[in-house]
Write a structure and sequence with these properties.
Blueprint (H helix, E strand, L loop, with lengths): L1 H28 L5 E10 L5 E9 L2 H10 L7 H8 L5 E7 L14 E7 L4 E6 L3 H17 L3
Antiparallel strand pairs: 1-2, 2-5, 3-4, 4-5
Length: 151
């Protein structure tokens, strides 16, 4: 019985720690005038599974430049710049530390989040998964979207 209580306590602490990380990231940026930021609790990633997501959209070019610098978004290749100039969206998808998505990913995938950046819309989503199964679903869904959205 004590083992079950200990495991339950550990699980609750891990969940609370993850929620705290998302809230801290949201709170860090919510007061900025050059971006819009939204915290979405229980975003549906398939017909059954949910995860929390932070969405950030630049209001202007200064906000977009800040986002690219703050989150270490790599510059576009010449081909991608050309695609963007023709109205074709270019995406960057990368892993980052869930407690601070401005930092590189952690070796433990559960301590990470997935960041998806849209250059055309000047926005990004920070997807917080808490299990390997959620990561797998998220990864598969993004791969499908990228194939569908190819010109």
């Amino acid at each position: 019985m004590k083992t079950l209580q200990l495991l339950t306590t550990i699980a609750l602490l891990l969940i609370a720690n993850s929620v705290w990380a998302q809230r801290e990231v949201y709170d860090r940026y919510v007061g900025r005038d050059d971006i819009d930021i939204v915290y979405v609790h229980d975003y549906l990633i398939d017909s059954v599974n949910t995860m929390d997501v932070i969405l950030i959209r630049a209001k202007d070019s200064a906000g977009w430049e800040w986002m690219k610098e703050e989150f270490n978004i790599l510059p576009l290749s010449e081909t991608n710049k050309e695609n963007l100039s023709q109205g074709i969206d270019v995406f960057r998808i990368f892993m980052a530390n869930k407690f601070d998505p401005t930092q590189p990913m952690d070796p433990n995938i559960i301590n990470d989040c997935l960041v998806k950046v849209s250059f055309l819309r000047k926005e990004m989503g920070i997807f917080y998964y808490s299990t390997k199964e959620q990561w797998d679903i998220l990864y598969v869904n993004f791969c499908k979207q990228l194939k569908i959205n190819k010109p």
